[in-house]
Amino acid sequence: MQFGSLIFLFLFLPFVLFFGNILKDRSKKYFLVLTGFFFYFFGMGGLSIVLLFSIIINWIFGLIISGTSKERSSLRITSAGVLVNILILTFYKYSGFIIDNIESLSGTEMESFRSLLPSGFPIGISFFTFVAISYLVDTHRNKDIVLKDPVDVAFIFSFFPKVLSGPITFHHKFISEVTGSRFMSSFEEGAKRFVYGLGKKVLIADTLAKCVNGIFEIPSGDLTFGLAWVGVLTFTLQIFMDFSGYTDMAIGLGRMLGFNIPENFNYPYIAISIKDFWKRWHISLSLWLQIYIFLPVAYKMMRKIDKDTRFGIKVEDIAYYTASFLTMLVCGIWHGAEWTFLLWGLFHGFFLIIEHWKLGKFLKKKVWKPLRVLYALLVVVVGWAIFRAPDTSYAYDLLSSMSGFGNGEGTRYFVSLYANTEIVIAIIAGILVSFPIFSIIKVRVSPLFVDKFPGSVRSVFHTFSEISYFLFFTGVFIVSIMAILGGTYSPFIYFRF
């Protein structure tokens, strides 16, 4: 079941919102756990057993960790629990990739092993695996936050707005963040946020997908300079509209049910560096990687090296470089079982390292801010080319075409075949939403204009604004439903991860 399906919108969602808001305390939690499993089972069927097993095994590990007083023993149990989660993730998501590469390197077929591979992997396994790891590690660090009730563990894993594609939440913060008394204002705000995300997904991302998919189906040898750039730039908008649209819908659903799901994006395409980009893009993943990969690796390296410098490089810089490399390696692998994802992660890691080395200081002191935004955006766009390519060979040809060294002649495939009026409108809408244009107008321009009028006029203007907002969100919802009925809805991109 997906957020944009008619079954979800007109059957599942009204049912959950009604009972989810009249039930209180534990009854509400039990209800949401049951509906979360139903939501997940509806799409995953038998693979839902993986989510259930993850809940049970991590609940047990959490209890054992919290009951272990010795630090060393607690660490070993935590490590074992983390390893179990990683093995489950590896089996379902990466085992085929591993066997493919072993066969390629050895020249031998491994049919006996291949017959044991799963036919697919549970959607959201990367997300709830990271939730599980953070739960075990946090319990090891602070045993008071353990969840003794298995229903509580089930709730943080299976809460349906975030189970498929996040945001990644930290259990001790999420489980206590119930808005309660702010129900009506929270519900209205959540409904608007949900519709906004639905519009971004259905009206913009899915429209752009027609252009992106069409161009990326072209043989890499036939790509021209224009086709390559149009394809990658359109994908740059598509993936942001798609993933941030999902997040908006998840946050909206959470608020309509009385829970605060954290923000996951903050206008990433206005970042002034790659470091700044990762503070704005997929914020919950960036925070998770920082807490559980980057900081532990950096601190451990600084403790291991007993000198201030090594090879003429400061210890803290060595720690930063190493931790950045490993963190972005994990980030790339987390996104999928393809070499392109690994290369994409290392590509971003490379720029994080050189920015920390000297480039960051140079950009800050010597480069005009709009040019810094342009630099970061260019790096991100090139990274998306690697990310979207189906394999490394295609990525190489795509980057060659973007650099002007492609082999495409432009006679059989050309831009106007893929960028029609509908696509151009979606691109314009995507740009308007990707940059804080309306926020700037609302915060800086509107007050200067409105405050000049007397109170009665301002009151009328306020009423007009409220009516306009209502008509806007109503229109977005209706047009989105029409698009879904027209069969233009497609799965979220991050369901692959």
Notes on the structure:
With 497 residues, the protein is an all-alpha fold. The chain has two domains: 6-176, no CATH class; 189-432, no CATH class. The protein contains 19 helices and two strands. It has helices spanning 6-22, 25-44, 48-66, 71-106, 111-114, 125-141, 150-158, 171-174, 183-216, 225-256, 274-280, 283-304, 315-335, 339-366, 369-388, 392-402, 421-434, 437-450, 455-485, and strands spanning 309-310, 313-314. Strands 1-2 form a two-stranded antiparallel ribbon. A hairpin with a 2-residue loop joins β1 and β2 (313-314). α12 (283-304) packs antiparallel against α13. It is globular, with a radius of gyration of 24 Å. The protein starts with 5 loop residues before the first helix and ends in a 12-residue tail after the last helix. The relative contact order is 0.11. Mean pLDDT is 89; it is low at 178-184.
Percent of residues in helices comes to over 70%
Q: How many domains, as an integer?
A: 2
Instruction: Report Rg.
Output: 24 Å
Question: Largest sheet at a glance?
Answer: 2 strands, antiparallel
Rough shape?
globular
Uncertain residue ranges: 178-184
From the helix content, strand content and strand pairing, which structural class follows?
mainly alpha
What attributes does this structure have?
2 domains; 19 helices; 2 strands; mainly alpha; two-stranded antiparallel ribbon; globular; 497 residues; single chain
Task: Note the topology.
Blueprint: H1 6-22, H2 25-44, H3 48-66, H4 71-106, H5 111-114, H6 125-141, H7 150-158, H8 171-174, H9 183-216, H10 225-256, H11 274-280, H12 283-304, E1 309-310, E2 313-314, H13 315-335, H14 339-366, H15 369-388, H16 392-402, H17 421-434, H18 437-450, H19 455-485
Antiparallel strand pairs: 1-2
Helix pairs in contact: 1-2, 2-7, 3-4, 3-6, 3-7, 4-6, 9-10, 9-17, 9-19, 10-15, 10-16, 10-17, 12-13, 13-14, 14-15, 15-16
